[in-house]
Amino acid sequence: MAIQTIPARIRWAVDILDVQPDDHVLEIGCGAGEAAGLVASRLGKGKLMVIDRSEAAVDRTKRVNAEYVDSGRLTVRHIDLATLRVPVKRLDKVFAVNVNLFWIRDCREEVALLHEKLTPGGTVHLFYEATRLDEVRMMVEKSSHALAEAGFRVSAVQSKRPAMVGIIGRK
């Protein structure tokens, strides 16, 4: 996938994620697979697992990132976070772009799973498109609270172009 066809919000989020070649990364909600391709391209010995509840999103992500799937660098699963049992012993980074799980309902169990599987110093990055200020405040507040309740140290980053906000929880 050519970098110019990847939306600016996805490029910004992956840049903030700061993927290192040996990282083990989990993406929650793969959408069209654009972030997966960017992250996988930055990995060397590291691995990326991508999950999504949408079978169509999983199929598309596998198709557009076939080279990374074939190399073993990328695993794509049709599953939601609540039922995921992470097969790796460690995760360095977890991220999601515009995934509403963390602000629309109680997600304590999912966040606890992430805290358990992250290495010390590992991070959870939750990125949201900032379309309406009142909505963004609520997203940041609820997501930050969920992460803090699970024991994460929480910070935020913001971008004006594209209009994005990121909540980062560090274990």
What does this protein look like?
41% of the residues are buried. The longest helix has 17 residues. β1, α2 and β2 form a beta-alpha-beta unit. The protein has 171 residues and is α/β, with parallel strands linked by helices. The radius of gyration is 15 Å and the shape is globular. Helix content is 39%, strand content 29%. It has a single domain, classed as Rossmann fold (3-Layer(aba) Sandwich). It comes from Nocardioides phosphati. This is Methyltransferase domain-containing protein. Pfam families: Methyltransf_25 (PF13649).
Oligomer: single chain
Total strands: the figure is 7
- How far apart, in Å, are the first and last alpha carbons? 33 Å
Strand order of the largest sheet: 3-2-1-4-5-7-6
Tell me, what's the shape?
Answer: globular
InterPro entries: Methyltransf_25, SAM-dependent_MTases_sf
Domain Methyltransferase: 25-122
Organism: Nocardioides phosphati
Protein name: Methyltransferase domain-containing protein
